[in-house]
Amino acid sequence: MDFSVLQIFVEVMRQGSFAAVARDRNIDPSSVSRAIAGLEEELGIRLLQRTTRQLSPTEAGMAYFQRIEPLVEEMQQAIDIATDVTGQPKGTLRVTASVSFGLKCIVPLLSSFSVMYPDLTVDLLLTDAIVDLLAERIDVAVRLGPLADSTLIAQQLMRTRYSVCASPDYLKRWGQPQKLSDVEQHNCLLFPLAGFRSRWIFMDKNGDKSEIPVRGRVVISSAIALQQCAIAGMGLALLPHWLIDEDLNNGKLVNVFPDYQVTATDFNTAAWLIYPSRAYVPLKVRVFIDFLKKHISS
Q: What sign does the CA torsion over 70, 71, 76, 81 have?
């Protein structure tokens, strides 16, 4: 029985789509369909019910999947271990991160990473959606904020902190806020997540917190876009320092309340390196995690 066909079957079961698996593997959907049909013929059972709108497992297909999935995982781990004996990471490393963090912090590092590991192909998926690591065959995810899935392994990449900032031109035209309540009189550039578009929370050096309502005429789902709008003088913005430190240093942006910590949700936030829980972590994953920690954590 062809191991690659079993891998395809497991991926189809996880994603529920021939097309999604085909996109991940960069092959035609008909190739996925033929692989499943061949497996069904070899086993003498129907594994999947196919309609024009839906793909669902049969009872036999679900039973087969439940037994074969851990075996496929074990076989892949055995392949990883054997490959890693050479001491040089090889193959494809699938990574996902948010669009803004990926563009700002990861993409600029890919050139030097590729030079260090020439036999490794990086497949980087930039999306603001929470990706199912198993279904999408992701090796490492970089996620911001609190962790939700305890079945995954997490390592902290770096602490994250936020500031309210504005361009010098905006502050010249509309005035520098002198106290926290002044924020209510300014146009704020808002992020559409819960909390981010309704209030900002400030904490002083004594740990005292103040919740300030915010309003604004611009709501954007991209941190980089909000950064560019702030630089263009469109209003106040609550942005992470991994994105704006350079702008603060060169004067494109001004930290409006430097004596305060600011958040829209939680002051204890971080960027996390997430990978599937497994007995063996492949060398390609380990070297990528170490590389990011060295170049980003510092």
A: positive
Q: Is 195 left (phi over 0), alpha (psi -120 to 50) or beta?
A: left
SS3 annotation, the chain: CCHHHHHHHHHHHHHCCHHHHHHHHCCCHHHHHHHHHHHHHHHCCCCEEECCCCEEECHHHHHHHHHHHHHHHHHHHHHHHHHHCCCCCCEEEEEEECHHHHHHHHHHHHHHHHHHCCCEEEEEEECCCCCCCCCCCCCEEEEECCCCCCCEEEEEEEEECEEEEECHHHHHHHCCCCCHHHHHHCCEEECCCCCCCCEEEEECCCCCEEEEECCCCEECCCHHHHHHHHHCCCCEEEEEHHHHHHHHHHCCCEECCCCCEEECCCCCEEEEEEEECCCCCCHHHHHHHHHHHHHHHC
**Rounded mean pLDDT, 123-135:** 90
Same fold, 91-159+269-297 and 162-263: yes
pTM greater than the 0.90 cutoff: no
* Phi and psi angles of residue 84, each rounded to the nearest 5 degrees, phi first: -70, -15
CATH second-level architecture of 3-84? Orthogonal Bundle (1.10)
Architecture of domain 91-159+269-297: 3-Layer(aba) Sandwich (3.40)
Q: What's the rounded mean pLDDT across residues 139-164?
A: 87
Report whether pLDDT(108) > 90: yes
What is the fold of 162-263? D-Maltodextrin-Binding Protein; domain 2 (3.40.190)
- Indicate whether 134 pLDDT > 90: no
Segment 48-60 mean pLDDT: 85
